[in-house]
């Protein structure tokens, strides 16, 4: 039995809870809250919209830059003006537990990769995606310096390290989509959070990584060459997933529409002033300032933001899903045996919320971003240097 402890979940309105999760040998996720008994899948719990809306991370932590749009929307009052109160919780790494928690009402929204969403659809978990945060593929394949390859078919017969076995549902479709025979790739679960250190120490031939993490690894002395998904993969990445029943309920749908608008405003703010967005994350999560520092924190946020943005001139707005990309993802999953049924992406990946979600005052959000007073450490970050070196570790 594997146990994961959720440390220091954060409620952005001030309330804090501490939950302990256990994953049984059968893969069933259970949670208990101190002093409140045991939560089991299907057990009665508070109505999901009776209090704070609970968002759950797939990474095992929220002490990262990835969720900047949420923190910006909170700090700048965008969520407050829209009547949105939100609690962020870290979930076990891998993402599988995220869809389970949302499905049974232990969380209200999750941020899984498309492969995890596909698995939830096949298992009839009643979930749909309403905001395509990751328009481009944010996942990368990392290699030790000088050992990289631009054609990932070279991984056939090689070993790829993963932090969690569940990440194979991310790696396999990405590799298959660029022509790799994934039956010839060997995966090793090297453990979260040490899988990248294992690669640096000489184990395996490559590992799964992602934008945002790339900046932190570099800061901590783990310098790799990267085949970057945002440049070479045709697939999308993580999105905001909720219960279909909530989309069909008028009151909850209205709340979700407001949430989407706040998220879009947070992304727009970061587009104009990524250093300000980084400072907002640092203030919400002080450990991120200590862990990343001003330069790496800004760089991490910029890396993630670029995959979230894609070519915005070709999109209906922030959060529009690439439905064709999701369809390709689900088709690839089926081709390699990760799904046994066909999925029509348009039935589960919804752009219904995007037009209204992007109907906000862009001039005001831009003005907010430019008017933000930066602290000295972030004001000193050389944005031109970060831009110039953005792809310096890319090999594709």
**Nearest-integer average pLDDT:** 88
Say what oligomer this is: single chain
- From the alpha-carbon coordinates, what is the Rg to the nearest angstrom? 20 Å
Q: Largest beta sheet, briefly?
A: 5 strands, mixed
What's the total count of β strands?
A: 15
What is the 3D form?
globular
CATH topology of the largest domain: D-Maltodextrin-Binding Protein, domain 2
Structural category: alpha/beta
Transmembrane segments: 20-40
Organism: Sagittula stellata (strain ATCC 700073 / DSM 11524 / E-37)
Domain SsuA/THI5-like: 70-264
Protein name: SsuA/THI5-like domain-containing protein
Record the SSE blueprint:
Elements lengths: L1 E5 L3 E2 L7 E5 L5 E5 L4 E2 L13 E5 L10 H8 L2 H5 L3 E5 L5 H8 L5 E2 L3 H9 L4 E5 L7 E6 L14 E4 L5 H10 L8 E4 L5 H6 L5 E5 L2 H7 L4 E5 H4 L7 E4 H5 L1 H23 L1 H11 L1 H24 L13 H13 L18 H4 L4 H10 L4 H4 L3 H6 L8
Parallel strand pairs: 6-7, 6-8, 11-12, 11-13
Antiparallel strand pairs: 1-3, 2-7, 3-4, 4-5, 9-15, 10-13, 10-14
Keywords: Membrane, Transmembrane, Transmembrane helix
Pfam families: NMT1
InterPro entries: NMT1/THI5, SsuA/THI5, TAT_signal, TAT_signal_bac_arc
């Amino acid at each position: 039995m594997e146990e994961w402890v959720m440390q220091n979940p954060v409620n952005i309105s001030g309330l804090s809870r501490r939950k302990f999760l256990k994953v049984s040998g059968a893969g069933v996720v259970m949670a208990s809250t101190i002093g409140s008994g045991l939560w089991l899948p299907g057990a009665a719990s508070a109505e999901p919209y009776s209090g704070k809306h609970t968002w759950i991370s797939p990474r095992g932590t929220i002490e990262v830059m990835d969720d900047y749009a949420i923190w910006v929307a909170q700090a700048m009052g965008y969520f407050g003006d829209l009547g949105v109160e939100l609690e962020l919780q870290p979930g076990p790494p891998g993402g599988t537990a995220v869809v389970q928690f949302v499905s049974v009402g232990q969380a209200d929204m999750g941020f899984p990769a498309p492969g995890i969403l596909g698995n939830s659809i096949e298992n009839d978990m009643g979930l749909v995606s309403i905001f395509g945060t990751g328009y481009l593929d944010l996942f990368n394949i990392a290699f030790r310096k000088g050992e990289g390859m631009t054609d990932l078919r070279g991984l056939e017969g090689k070993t790829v390290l993963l932090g969690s076995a569940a990440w194979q549902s991310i790696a396999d479709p990405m590799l298959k989509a660029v022509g790799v025979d994934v039956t010839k790739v060997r995966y090793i679960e090297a453990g979260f959070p040490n899988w990248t250190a294992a690669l640096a120490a000489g184990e395996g031939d490559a590992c799964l990584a992602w934008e945002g993490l790339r900046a932190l690894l570099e800061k901590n002395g783990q310098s790799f060459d990267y085949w970057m998904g945002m440049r070479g993969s045709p697939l999308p990445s993580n999105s905001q997933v909720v219960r279909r029943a909530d989309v069909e309920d008028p009151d909850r749908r209205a709340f979700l529409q407001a949430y989407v608008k706040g998220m879009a405003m947070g992304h727009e703010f970061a587009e104009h002033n990524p250093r300000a967005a980084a400072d907002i994350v640092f203030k919400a999560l002080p450990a991120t300032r200590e862990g990343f520092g001003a330069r790496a924190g800004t760089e991490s946020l910029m890396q993630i933001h670029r995959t979230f943005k894609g070519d915005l001139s070709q999109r209906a707005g922030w959060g529009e899903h690439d439905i064709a990309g999701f369809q390709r993802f689900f088709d690839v999953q089926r081709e390699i045996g990760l799904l046994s049924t066909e999925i029509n992406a348009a039935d589960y990946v919804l752009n219904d919320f995007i037009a209204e979600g992007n109907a906000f005052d862009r001039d005001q959000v831009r003005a907010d971003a430019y008017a933000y007073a930066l602290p000295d450490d972030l004001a000193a970050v050389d944005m031109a240097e970060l831009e110039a070196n953005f792809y310096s570790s890319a090999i594709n």
